[in-house]
User: Fold this.
Amino acid sequence: STGSVFHWLENGGSHPRADLWRSRIRGAGHDSIEAYASDQFQPAMAEYLDAHDHRLVDGAADVVRELLLRGHEIAFVSNSNQNKLATMLGDAGILEGAGVRVIGNARKWWIRDDEPLVSVDGRRVHMDRPYYRAILEDVRPDLVIGDVASFDLALPAYMRSRGELSEGLRLVLRRSANTSAWALAQPGESGPVRLVDEVVDSVRELL
Assistant:
């Protein structure tokens, strides 16, 4: 991820051209290499979203409505810009309030320190993600659904294992044709993780 690469560069990562990259970034007047990463990530993501169709997957709005009818509260937590996220949800008829929270700019990718570092099926995943941790501590979820294991599920699984989130916390990985093998192996490595297909058809598939 952008955060991982620039965190590595900020903290002395070794590569034949690493010193050149560091000097060029700092010479351009950026406060830090990780600040430069943030400056690059947000505009690039906004450009991508403008160029591609960005909407809820088919059936997702129905799942949200059914969960709300059952009395559940839902927090949408995304790296996307707050206004962009609210607009996308609003286009699907999902408005903030009455059981719905919209939390954009989550910066799940932002890594502060190298440790703690957890190995998941050979993939090393950084767990010191202070912005996402703060959101999880505030929301105190009993169910987390995501489609990127390292961003969405690894930290909640880690916090659950340490007693920092409820031991009953359920984790759902929405798999797709692009889901990596190490992510699919996560259920066996880090406690109960439910796998669902790319298209969500019913609440039953999640709970």
Notes: The CA atoms of residues 112 and 171 lie 24 Å apart.
